[in-house]
Amino acid sequence: AQSVAQPEDQVNVAEGNPLTVKCTYSVSGNPYLFWYVQYPNRGLQFLLKYITGDNLVKGSYGFEAEFNKSQTSFHLKKPSALVSDSALYFCAVRDRTGGGNKLTFGTGTQLKVEL
Amino acid sequence: SAVISQKPSRDICQRGTSLTIQCQVDSQVTMMFWYRQQPGQSLTLIATANQGSEATYESGFVIDKFPISRPNLTFSTLTVSNMSPEDSSIYLCSVGEGQGNSGNTIYFGEGSWLTVV
Questions:
Q1: Considering just the CA atoms, what is the radius of gyration of chain B in Å?
Q2: Pairing status of strand A109-114 against strand A10-14
Q3: Contact B31, B96 (CB under 8 A)
Q4: Min Cα separation B91/chain A (Å)
Q5: Which residue among A30, A94, B47, B112 has its CA within the 20 to 30 Å range from the CA of B6?
Q6: Which pLDDT score is estimated for B100?
């Protein structure tokens, strides 16, 4: 079975400050990991993914995420937050072996960036 | 990435009725999926829409309630049958790039926001 935990329902950060949205995962094998963002009244937009190779993955809008196998984490980061980054962020995992194409999502973290 | 269009984008439905959601993709894709996002909740996979054969449903979802069609590689429909207020959700069509389980990205449409009254 595969699962994702996003321990924070909401993260508040001041504009210009760095932000981190946390994600931990559980799979029986090795993971594919994804981050998506959902703006109000919109569908999900793909931000970035980890497949293999470099543990630091760079994605859209200046976001990046670091894969840490020992801690089974894939935290989303951005060096300098913008008010326009305020949205709902979802981490998702897929098991490389036996997981098929099924994505399992976390419960989401609401990011609020304030002036 | 593929452009995914869903219709309707929003609807208010009467209890006991059925509604069909359409998903059109601007290119041929092997993998198409339907997800549900209940209010304030995360996404749950309903089923994988298989071209030319019956959809593969996840635990807790059945064909009688959520019949799915996939007549070709660019189009799929999801019907929500005999709706109740508990079916009020966002229903999202999604597609996978490439083939097989090779770390391919799943892209989502804008969703169909259904409210059952």
A1: 13
A2: parallel
A3: yes
A4: 10
A5: A94
A6: 57
**Surface of A (9-48) touching B: CB under 8 A:** 32, 34, 36, 41-46
With H, G, I as helix, E, B as strand and everything else as coil, classify residue A112: strand
Q: B103, exposed or middle or buried, with CB in 10 Å at 0-12, 13-18, 19+?
A: middle
Per-residue model confidence (pLDDT) at position B101: 57
Nearest CB partner across the interface for A96, out of B42, B101, B109: B101
Per-residue tokens: B60:
């807790």
> What radius of gyration do chain A's Cα atoms show?
14
Average pLDDT, chain B: 92
Residue B83 binned pLDDT confidence (cut-offs 50, 70, 90): very high
**Among the partner residues B42, B90, B109, nearest to A106 by beta-carbon distance:** B42
